[in-house]
Design a protein that fits this description.
By secondary structure, the chain is mainly alpha-helical. It is 42% helix and 10% strand. The protein has 5 helices and 4 strands; from the N terminus they run H-E-H-E-E-H-H-H-E. The strands form 2 sheets. A two-stranded antiparallel sheet has the order 1-4. It is elongated and about 75 Å long. 10% of the residues are buried.
Amino acid sequence: MAEIEVDTSPFNRAIAVYAAGITKPVEAAITVAGKPEDYWFVWEAGSRKNPGPKTVRGAGGRIFSRQAPKGYVLKYRAEFIKWLLQEFKGAGRFPIHADIVKSVNRVAHQALALIKATVPIDSGALRDSMTVKEAQ
């Protein structure tokens, strides 16, 4: 039986060069400020408090807003991932750190637009207080 040897050193060098340019995770966030900071998560994940006229019962007896009975953020998780994957599809090269930051920020702004379009609206304060904290 013949032995086959493959030289992977060019690939290893490419990975090392790529990894050297990424020193920390690239993270962007959708933030909420002001009074809505107190209740944004309840509208997303529900509450155990007594239901009111604008609420419905959901899974596990949790109380949700009638406008978002299944939440308004995490139900789009697959969409957010798809957008990130599309950012790098067909790039033809390893993305450098700056490329990754730009892509993450573009997707964060897309996600914010979708979330703002589907967030429950009571006074509008929650929607109006949402912003993107961009990746650096």
